[in-house]
Amino acid sequence: MALSSPGTGNAAATSSRTSAAPAPGRGLLPLLLVGNTAMYSLYIGVGGILLALQVEQVDPAHKVSDFGLIAGVSAIFATVFNPVAGALSDRSGRRNPWILGGGLAAVPAMFLLGLADTVLLITIAWCLGQAVMNVYQAALASVVPDRVPTAARGKASAAVGLGLPFGSALGALAGAAFSEDHRTGYLVFGALVAAAAVLFTACTREQRLPARASLPVRAQLAAFTGALRDHDFRWAFTGRALLVLGYFAVSGYQLYILQDHTVLPDGMEPEAAVAVLVPLTSVAMVLSTVLGGYLSDRFDRRKLFVGASALLSAVALVIPAVSASWSAMLAFSVVNGLAFGCYMAVDTALVTMVLPNAEDAARDMGVLNIANAGPQIVAPFIASVIVSVSGGYTALFVAAAALAVAGALAVRPIRGVR
């Protein structure tokens, strides 16, 4: 993977710590895949299926607004805990203990979620789940800029990106399998993350980085916002936030879309439909993740692939807007999978090349993750308002497509990466 031009805002990100890093061991990339697969399986299986079914069971008349509230409030915890955990792991000079601690804590968090029987208790338990999962995620996301040289980051980013389709497929299938027993399902997902954390930390060695001195609170807040003053990082942040906002406005309500918008084949339940659509999307993601990562390395063109995949995502979102048929939903799943897989693989590589400071890699990756978690705060509220006002989901697809187009345009001003 090519470095940015000298003198650009992310020059510090190519310091000797990462540019001179040894080639990743053969086991690191598969372990990154396993770690991310477990994480995304919980996010999809719990956040996309079991949680929606649990909310519907508790309060069926207000499921859309209740689910929006729970998803939005819990995303605040994700937004806060990810950069904070990243900064703390930077300060400690270690990643593995944070990966292990967050992964093991997923088990009791999922146990408490299974016991919740009111909207308030579900909200509290899922907030706790988001908090511990983002401790895990922040440290795991720092492994690539810490341990992988820039020339190999396309492959490493592809390994990370493949965790999304594999985890989505696993999460959808397991979520559907435990749709009648969500308590057991929650424990299964928690145990999966814990096992992945144990495996990763037991099988990877990390070179302890210099510990960072403690900063005053005001200085820490300034450091968090300082990354956004970098021109390229700011635009990468904006593009990711816009696309993710549109993506989660739709994907968060997938089960309810299948219940209330899509005309399913006779005899097919929405849970079964999810178990068909998500693996289909995942196969498309796998193909585009691998191909996108390889071609972006081969042609040294990140912005082109990121922008084109964001535009393709907009095209995908238009399909179910013009047709509520099952065939349209199948087409949407394939095209959306191709678009989002390529986007996440190449955009992740692009982001590692515009980090303002390599010594603050985990913190800055945590700041960037606000572009992932932050939109999830407002997406459920926006989606519930659009659905309530318009009386259906067509307007939601159109709004999400417009956001994807805006996300594609946001990468154009980036100067340090082609």
Automatic annotation (TrEMBL):
GO terms for cellular component: plasma membrane. Residues 1-22 are annotated as: Disordered. It is a multi-pass membrane protein. The keyword Amino-acid biosynthesis does not apply. GO terms for molecular function: transmembrane transporter activity. PROSITE patterns: MFS. SUPFAM superfamilies: MFS general substrate transporter. It is found in: Cell membrane. It comes from the Bacteria. The chain crosses the membrane at residues 27-55, 67-85, 97-116, 156-178, 184-203, 237-257, 272-292, 304-322, 328-355, 367-387, 393-411. Keywords: Membrane, Transmembrane, Transmembrane helix. Signal peptide: none annotated. Coiled coil: none annotated. The keyword Signal does not apply. Residues 7-22 have a biased composition (Low complexity). PANTHER family: MAJOR FACILITATOR SUPERFAMILY (MFS) PROFILE DOMAIN-CONTAINING PROTEIN (PTHR23528:SF1), PTHR23528. This is Major Facilitator Superfamily protein.
